[in-house]
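The protein record minuted underneath.
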Amino acid sequence: MAASCLINRRSCIIAKISHEQVNVIDTGPIRVKWSDKDRTVLFEPPDENRFTMKVKEVIRACNIHQQSNEFESQFNDLKNILGNWIHGRKDKISKAFVTIRDTRILFLAITKNVEYDRELEDELTELDWTIAHTPLFSAIQLSIQSLPQCDADIYEAFLSPPVILEYIG
């Protein structure tokens, strides 16, 4: 037998649903209010493995879930922008990575030359500034760094396994 839980300010109403008959109870949106933070919410998922949480825990969990969804969407957009940016400079960049470093996302570009390229560095600075000041990326904390042409053991010191994305263009 499956069940669902409808929450209102006064009590937790449990609507039992049998296999033979489906009762739909629609009382509008479920309101979870911070003023009820110490009340308990009973959850009955489809597997009938019931559990409870305090309202304040439910609100925190929902906020974390919403932030996670926002970050995932922004990160996917960021990967597209970085990929297009790299592709437009494939004559100057030999490798590029996205990884985690010092609690931030690191975009690491390895140039094809050993010599300093002022134009590429200016473009990286502009990319960094643009991403940092774009509301589309409000959940993203990004560091951008470049290294001149070097061996793998040098640039791998900047990468944090297992979270490494490599641009292959």
Notes: The CA atoms of residues 1 and 18 lie 5 Å apart. Strands lie at 2-7, 12-17, 40-43, 51-54, 93-101, 104-111, 142-147, 164-166. DSSP finds three helices and eight strands in the chain.
